[in-house]
Write a structure and sequence with these properties.
Elements (H helix, E strand, L loop, with lengths): L1 H42 L1 E7 L2 E3 L3 E17 L4 E6 L6 E2 L4 E5 L2 H29 L5 H27 L1 E3 L4 E3 L9 E2 L4 E18 L11 E6 L5 E9 L9 E9 L10 E7 L6 E6 L4 E3 L2 E8 L2 E6 L1 E5 L3 E6 L6 E3 L12 E6 L1
Parallel strand pairs: 1-22
Antiparallel strand pairs: 1-21, 2-15, 3-10, 3-14, 4-6, 4-9, 5-8, 6-7, 8-10, 10-13, 11-12, 11-14, 12-13, 15-20, 16-17, 17-18, 19-20
Pfam family, one: YknX_C
InterPro entries: Beta-barrel_RND_2, MdtA-like_BSH, RND_pump_MFP, YknX-like_C
GO molecular function: efflux transmembrane transporter activity
Length: 356
C-alpha cells in the first residue's frame, strides 16, 4: 500500500516539475529578448514629426515701406530780398493761395513809377510822330524808333510787375506748413528753402518688391499695411511703379496710396506692407522652416522610412520667416521630421514621439 501511494505521488510530481522547468526556460529566453527590445528603443533618436498634406495657399509677402505725403514742396524765394512779413504760424494748416511771406518791394515800386512816367512820354512821342508821318514832316525811321521805345518801356513795366508779384509768396496748395527757417528781417536768396509745405490728406507708401514677384504687381491692385504706431491693418491701392528695376537689388519700386482720414499717418513713418504672392486657388505642402536642412544643391528634409531617417531633396516656391512651400520632393502622407535636425543623418534610427 505504501509503495503504491508513493508511486502515484511521483507520477504526479514528475509532470509538474517538467512544466516548471519549461516555464523557467521560457522566462530565461524572454528576458534577453525584452532587454534587447528596450535597448533598441532607447538607441533610437526621438523626433517630432508632421504629416505632409496638400492645402490651399493664401501666402503673403511682407516688406518694409516708407510713408510719403501726397504732395510736398519746399517754399523758396525767387528774388534776393529782405523779408518784411511772415504770415503764418509754424505747424499750422494753410489754405491754397494763402500769403506765407512778403518781401521788400520798395525799390520795385519806385522803378515802376519811373517806367510809368517814361512810358507816358514815349506814348505821347509816338502819337505825335504818327500824325507828322501822315504829312511826311518826319522820316519813317524816326517814327519807328519812337514805336520801339514805347514797346521797350512797356516790356520793362511788365517785367517789374512780375517781380512785384514775386515779393508776395503764396501757398501753392492746401496743407500743413512746417517750421519757418527764416524770420522777419532776414535776407533771402533764390533757391534757399524757407519752409516746407505738405499735403497729407492722402499718404503715399513707397516700397520695393523682389523681381520674382513682378507678375503679382499691377496698378489698381490692393495691398495691406500696418504702421509702427499700431498693429491695426489698413488698405492701400497701387498707383504707380518705376519703369525699370534697380540694377543692384533687382527689385521694383512700387507706390501705393491711401486716405489719411483723421491725420493718423505722417510722412516718414515706416509701414509693413503685405501683398499676396500665391495665385487664387493654389495648393501646396507647407512645412515649418525648422524642418529645412540647407545643402550645396539646395534644401532637403528628412522623412521617416521603416524607422530610419531618409533625406529628400525638395524644391521651394516661397519661404517666409516661419514656413516654406514645397512644390516637389515630398508626397502627401510623408512623415517629415521637424526636430533634432543636427543629429540626423541618412539611416539614423528614429522614433516619433510627437505628431503635429
Amino acid at each position: 500500500m505504501l509503495y503504491k501511494y508513493s508511486t502515484q505521488r511521483l507520477g504526479v510530481l514528475i509532470p509538474l516539475l517538467g512544466i516548471l522547468l519549461i516555464g523557467c526556460e521560457n522566462k530565461e529566453k524572454k528576458a534577453p529578448e525584452k532587454a534587447a527590445t528596450a535597448q533598441a528603443d532607447t538607441s533610437k533618436l526621438p523626433v517630432d514629426i508632421i504629416i505632409a498634406q496638400q492645402q490651399q495657399l493664401n501666402q503673403e509677402e511682407a516688406v518694409v515701406g516708407t510713408m510719403m505725403p501726397y504732395r510736398e514742396v519746399s517754399i523758396v524765394s525767387e528774388l534776393p530780398q529782405k523779408i518784411t512779413q511772415v504770415s503764418f504760424k509754424d505747424g499750422s494748416y494753410v489754405r491754397q493761395g494763402a500769403v506765407l511771406y512778403k518781401l521788400n518791394d520798395a525799390d520795385i515800386r519806385s522803378r515802376l513809377k519811373q517806367i510809368g512816367a517814361e512810358l507816358k512820354l514815349a506814348q505821347l512821342s509816338k502819337n505825335r510822330l504818327s500824325n507828322l508821318l501822315k504829312t511826311e514832316t518826319v522820316r519813317p525811321q524816326e517814327y519807328d524808333e519812337a514805336v520801339m521805345r514805347f514797346q521797350s518801356l512797356t516790356a520793362q513795366q511788365e517785367l517789374l510787375r512780375v517781380d512785384l508779384a514775386k515779393t508776395v509768396i503764396h501757398a501753392p496748395f492746401s496743407g500743413k506748413i512746417g517750421i519757418s527757417k527764416v524770420h522777419l528781417g532776414a535776407y533771402v536768396t533764390p533757391g534757399i528753402g524757407l519752409v516746407t509745405l505738405q499735403d497729407q490728406s492722402s499718404i503715399k507708401i513707397n516700397f520695393s518688391v523682389p523681381e520674382k514677384y513682378l507678375p503679382l504687381i499691377h496698378v489698381g491692385g490692393q495691398i495691406r499695411f500696418t504702421a509702427e504706431l499700431s498693429d491695426q491693418e489698413y488698405s492701400a491701392t497701387i498707383i504707380a511703379t518705376e519703369p525699370g528695376l534697380d540694377a543692384e537689388s533687382r527689385s521694383l519700386q512700387v507706390q501705393a496710396i491711401t486716405q489719411n482720414t483723421g491725420g493718423k499717418f505722417r510722412a516718414g513713418l515706416s509701414a509693413k506692407v503685405y501683398f499676396h504672392v500665391s495665385d487664387k486657388g493654389a495648393t501646396g505642402i507647407m512645412i515649418p522652416t525648422e524642418a529645412l536642412a540647407p545643402g550645396e544643391k539646395g534644401y532637403t528634409v528628412f522623412v521617416i522610412k521603416n524607422g530610419v531617417a531618409k533625406p529628400k531633396p525638395i524644391t521651394i516656391s516661397n519661404r517666409t520667416e516661419t514656413h516654406a512651400v514645397i512644390t516637389s520632393g515630398i508626397a502627401t502622407g510623408d512623415s517629415i521630421i521637424v526636430s533634432n535636425m543636427l543629429r540626423l543623418g541618412d539611416g539614423t534610427p528614429v522614433k516619433a514621439v510627437i505628431s503635429k
